Amino acid sequence: MLFWLTEFSDGGDAFNLFRYITFRAGGAFLTALIFGFLFGPPLINVLRKRQGKGQPIRADGPEGHFAKAGTPTMGGLLIIGALVTSTLLWARLDNPFVWMVLFVTISYAAIGFADDYAKVSKQNTAGVSGKVRLLLGFVIAGIAGFWAAAYHPEDLSYRVAFPIFKDTLVYLGYFFVPFAMIVIVGAANAVNLTDGLDGLAIMPVMIATSTLGVIAYAVGRVDFTEYLDVHYVPGTGEILIFAAGVVGGGLGFLWYNAPPAAVFMGDTGSLALGGALGAIAVATKHEVVLAIVGGLFVVEALSVIIQVLYFKRTGKRVFLMAPIHHHYEKKGWAEPTIVIRFWIISLILAIIGLATLKVR
Predict the structure, then answer these.
(1) pTM for the full predicted model
(2) Residue 102: is its pLDDT beyond 90?
(3) 350: three-class secondary structure by DSSP
(4) Residue 183 · residue 287 · CB < 8 Å
(5) Which of 22, 111, 292, 316 has a CA positioned 20 to 30 A from the CA of residue 273?
(6) CA distances (Å), origin 141, targets 23, 33, 149, 261
(7) Is 267 labelled as part of a ligand binding site?
(8) Segments in the chain forming alpha helices (H)
(9) Is residue 280 very low, low, confident or very high in pLDDT (cuts 50, 70, 90)?
């Protein structure tokens, strides 16, 4: 919205600053951060009053989690509110990729909200049917896949790019849409599975989003893409502003989610943020790099898949409990130890993901 102030610029005044994506990204970060600090306490108070007993705790979960009974959920509303407000305020609203990412984020937040509401109102961990969630998620992701392909350059549309191999593009045709659906839905559910300890999911999300935001900025500039020898995707630079909103809103949320958490993110936040990661990856043609940058989420999801498949086949478990962060809880690791070590792993993977921009 504020980008339109450039119409009053003669090129040498303060209004000219709004032409720069980096300046507006900084503004988006600060806006989202302030939003989080301002609206965090009243939102938590409302959630606590409305939810009563808070998020239901799994009876078969780690024993330490029973102490968290009564903690309200749906804290993802704070992050979503912060990032949507900051994006609408600072991004160019004529950019199709900004709207695509917002569409996925808000839609997945709605699915997560419905699931959280069902859990809190019924006081059980079932929530909305998994099949319904997946169906809605795939429909939204399918729309996003077509949306992205329609605005990609002709030489990139309906194709998948691979890191390191600079000239490798695989044409999928309309199969690109199912591929994009798997990326977005997979990312959403992987982040959702990771959200099991205080502060565990939000920091890796911020790290991954920051990394993808930098990638989006790079592939959206001709000079950067020529220097790095990566594919140029016009318009994706504006996604950096959305990413900055996620980081600002995420830090505001983490202030209240730090152990012991005053509020949980809930599916409202985890599904939305995971879906956003997938949508950014699809928009920037870095779907494969997402698997590296978001490697922690991949491992969390794989641990559940392996556990379920192995148990069905043998009746035995590979992990003491899945997702894998619960396995380490069962082994006696302290919750802060697990969280911080997983943050470190996320940072290492993000650096490796960024390195793919230059290693060609």
Answers:
(1) 0.94
(2) yes
(3) helix
(4) yes
(5) 22
(6) 31, 28, 12, 31
(7) yes
(8) 21-51, 76-90, 96-122, 130-151, 176-194, 202-219, 222-228, 239-257, 266-284, 287-293, 295-314, 324-330, 335-355
(9) very high
